[in-house]
Amino acid sequence: MHNLAELIDEAAVFLRDRVRRTPLEFSPGLSQMLGVPVWLKLESMQLTGSFKIRGALFRVSKLTEEEKRLGVVTCSAGNHGKAVAYAAREPGIHATICVPKSVDRAKYEAMVALGADVQVSEFEGYDDTEEWARGIAADRRLTFLSPFDDYAVMAANGGTTAMECVEDAPSARDFVVPVGGGGLSAGFAWYVKNTAKSLKKTVRIIGSQHVLSPALQMSLDAGHAITKLPAVETMAGGVEGGIGALAFGVLGPLIDRVALVSEDEILDGVRWMLEHHQYLIEPTSAVTVAACLTGKIGKLDEPTVVVISGRNVSVDAVKKILCRY
Fold first, then answer.
1. pTM (2 decimals)?
2. What letter does residue 170 receive in the DSSP assignment?
3. How does pLDDT run across 121-165, given as a tens digit for each residue?
4. Architecture of the domain made up of 4-50+150-323
5. CA–CA distance, 86 with 323 (Å, rounded to integer)
6. Where in the chain is the domain with CATH 3.40.50.1100?
7. Is 310 helix (H, G, I), strand (E, B) or coil?
């Protein structure tokens, strides 16, 4: 395993003037409901609309000059692709971004607007689309940038987000994170657990997943990473599919609980955030809110941080969500 401590410190310095230090906002509603102080880490207010810009900028900075000249290929449900398009634009790197045909329209249009070569696959799900994207990268002899299964991505996406949470909410002991491929949750858990250990504190990491695509829980049950799952129909594309093998290697020993939430519960989370905090967030990021609202995170005894990962959602999707209210 790469030295995550060094990578997180390096990423924090690199990103300091390149991304926003997003707010940590107190949630009166969740605090009253859960019986402990609860703060929201609003990565939904990050540049490009999600935490993914952290990992994209840091990983792109590590490309060799030859890799930059030839260009890169990646796969994304939307947010990572948008972030890579943003990171590649200034240095003039050609970025091919492969997306499932179920990609949210707002995310697709944002990637195109940033100048990326966006290729829509014939597949509904992420996993099949990634296999296709990796084939393109191999055929063209280009670098494939994983959205999650990369130590630099884990360090930047999860590690630096966790660093800000620990600094801004030093009393927090429970942390609720969304889990898709594991790039955010693995780096986040590693930083929080190791910081707590050095301070002789006890902390817990609670992962939130879609009940129809529970790769983390399945991996824990199996004892190894479940890297590919059948596609499921969901508006929360960022938490659909398998978990990265490297990411699970980091996250597996550190996760304390897994909360599995349904599609309707996720959409309730989107509406709750709009009603109680006046923030429009995307369904993927509402898995953590849903885990809190349903009580599926279990009993909490300590101050808690809930990560809100992104805001990128199309007008059509918003209409569907609100019409189901």
1. 0.96
2. T
3. 999 999 999 999 999 999 999 999 999 999 999 999 999 999 999
4. 3-Layer(aba) Sandwich (3.40)
5. 33
6. 4-50+150-323, 53-145
7. strand
